[in-house]
Write a structure and sequence with these properties.
There is one protein chain. This protein is globular. By secondary structure, it is mainly alpha-helical. The protein starts with 7 loop residues before the first helix and ends in a 17-residue tail after the last helix. The protein folds into two domains: 138 residues, no CATH class; 122 residues, no CATH class. The protein is 67% helix and 0% strand.
């Protein structure tokens, strides 16, 4: 079962029917995301309207390495931050200010050396693309093997940055050595997957260094890419089953960690939308506003976003 996604070519042609379906499909989850951060229903509606207008303006520069939902949520995140800054908010909610779209600096911890950050930036686009691909391969493989505890452990280590001790206690493993073993085997498998896809030695060398225990730079990149590309976010139909309480123990274990402890902002927004019952009734006035504003933009033949508008997802 897969969720509908729009045809990017039709969106770039400014076809009304395709944009109409986009608005009806994604309006609710975008509103839930903005409302979680602002706590202001009116502001959240304004953010959704600005997001969808921004999507129309920026669609010609759509980056196919992301999903369309990631594209929308990236714009929504930027608009939400703009609103918070205008309101001069001192902080965002604890643990939610970084949705995985920040630069490398935002992920560097105390003691991170400038040279390590520079080295991260100097990784080639090909290497970053490869790392994203093999992480996705590993996650899909682990899900298919129904190793949901293993998936949760690696997500806690790589995407959240938990310490071995915390992971051991949370997942009731034998000891910290068991956590280290799961990480070691995951890195080993990533190297194998990389070798299948790539014969070069740049990324393979990084993976080898991490396997030997010097994984600081790799951990940083994995965390950024994992969150930026939402690598372990389940499809919406899994979230619907989670909301309905019909998941079996394995996937339910992972989704409970992903939502309740990792607090993935994108999946939590989808869950909020599902619990509300989609966009029926409650969001009809917002949809009317969105439809009217985007229709005007489409009819005016707006084609491209001026440089610097920030409609695309940040790349570093």
């Amino acid at each position: 079962m897969s969720e509908w996604t729009p045809e990017i070519a039709l969106l770039q042609e400014r076809q009304d029917a395709e944009w109409l379906r986009v608005e009806r499909t994604y309006c609710g989850r975008l509103h839930a995301y903005a409302n979680r951060r602002t706590g202001d229903l009116q502001a959240s509606e304004d953010i959704v309207q600005e997001t969808l207008l921004g999507a129309v303006r920026g669609i010609d520069d759509f980056d196919s390495s992301y999903s369309f939902e990631q594209y929308l949520f990236g714009i929504c995140r930027n608009r939400t931050i703009d609103y918070m800054r205008r309101k001069k908010a001192r902080t965002l909610p604890v643990g939610e200010e970084d949705d995985g779209f920040g630069g490398l600096e935002s992920l560097a911890t105390a003691g991170e050396t400038p040279s390590a950050i520079v080295r991260g930036r100097e990784l080639s686009d090909r290497a970053l693309t490869l790392l994203t691909a093999i992480l996705r391969d590993w996650i899909e493989e682990t899900w298919d093997q129904r190793e949901f505890v293993r998936l949760s452990v690696v997500e806690a280590l790589f995407a959240v940055g938990w310490r071995n001790r915390d992971v051991w206690r949370r997942f009731r493993l034998r000891d910290e050595t068991a956590v280290a073993g799961i990480k070691f085997r995951a890195l080993k498998r990533l190297r194998q997957l990389a070798a299948v896809r790539e014969s070069g030695n740049d990324l393979l060398g990084l993976l080898a260094a991490a396997e030997e225990g010097n994984g600081r730079l790799l951990d940083l990149d994995v965390r950024r890419l994992w969150n930026e590309h939402r690598l372990s976010c389940p499809a919406r139909h899994w979230l619907a089953r989670y909301v309905a309480g019909t998941l079996e123990e394995g996937p339910e274990t992972f989704l409970r960690f992903h939502l309740e402890e990792r607090k993935c902002p994108w999946c939590m927004a989808n869950v909020d939308d599902l619990r509300r019952g989609g966009t029926e009734g409650e969001l009809d006035p917002l949809l009317e506003r969105v439809l009217e504003s985007t229709q005007r933009l489409l009819q005016n033949g707006q084609r491209r976003t001026p440089p610097g508008e920030g409609e695309r997802l940040p790349s570093d």
